[in-house]
Amino acid sequence: MSLLQEFKAFAVKGNVVDMAVGIIIGAAFGKIVSSFVGDVVMPPIGLLIGGVDFSDLAITLKAAQGDAPAVMLAYGKFIQTVLDFVIVAFAIFMGVKVINRLKREEAAAPSVPPAPSTQEVLLTEIRDLLKEQRKP
């Protein structure tokens, strides 16, 4: 099998397509969460601690000189990114928890055994008749 045929067989499997859809939705969800954290959550938190804008929090390691920009340790942006991650991780955890609960309920539901086939019914009747004939 050629490399191209192997790749085609791999790429059209259902799991790969599902994974691609998940990645695309995850990227869009990540942007929504980033906007939520940066534009909705962090401004009130910054206001509560004295009007601090977290995206501006940084430590200057080396001041700007001429055309060279300043070297900054932007820990405020890092805090925002960590908060983004926590929110996304919590949302994914809740989604997985719901899916696991649905799977457990599905597994716990008793399945009705299939009705015996006509052959099985006839064989059972024959067996029962033979048992009756053997009795003294």
Description:
The chain has 136 residues and is mainly alpha-helical. It has one domain (3-130): Non-ribosomal Peptide Synthetase Peptidyl Carrier Protein, Chain A. 70% of the residues lie in helices and 5% in strands. Strands 1-2 form a two-stranded antiparallel sheet. The longest helix has 35 residues, at 14-48. The termini are far apart. The model has no long low-confidence stretch (mean pLDDT 83).
Euclidean distance between termini CA atoms: 70 Å
What is the helix content?
Answer: 55-70%
Q: What is the CATH homologous superfamily assignment?
A: Large-conductance mechanosensitive channel, MscL, domain 1
CATH topology name: Non-ribosomal Peptide Synthetase Peptidyl Carrier Protein, Chain A
What is the number of E strands? 2
Assigned CATH class: Mainly Alpha
What integer value in Å does the Rg equal? Answer: 32 Å
Q: Major sheet: order of its strands?
A: 1-2
Spans with pLDDT under 50 lasting ≥5 residues?
none
Tell me about the biggest sheet?
2 strands, antiparallel
Report the structural category.
mainly alpha
Q: How many separate domains? A: 1
User: Overall pLDDT, averaged?
Assistant: 83
Strand content: 5-15%
In N-to-C order, the SSE pattern is HHEEHH
The CATH architecture can be named as Orthogonal Bundle
Counting H and I runs of at least 4 residues, what is the number of helices?
Answer: 4
Outline, from the CA principal axes?
Answer: elongated
Quick recap:
With 136 residues, the chain is mainly alpha-helical. It is 70% helix and 5% strand.
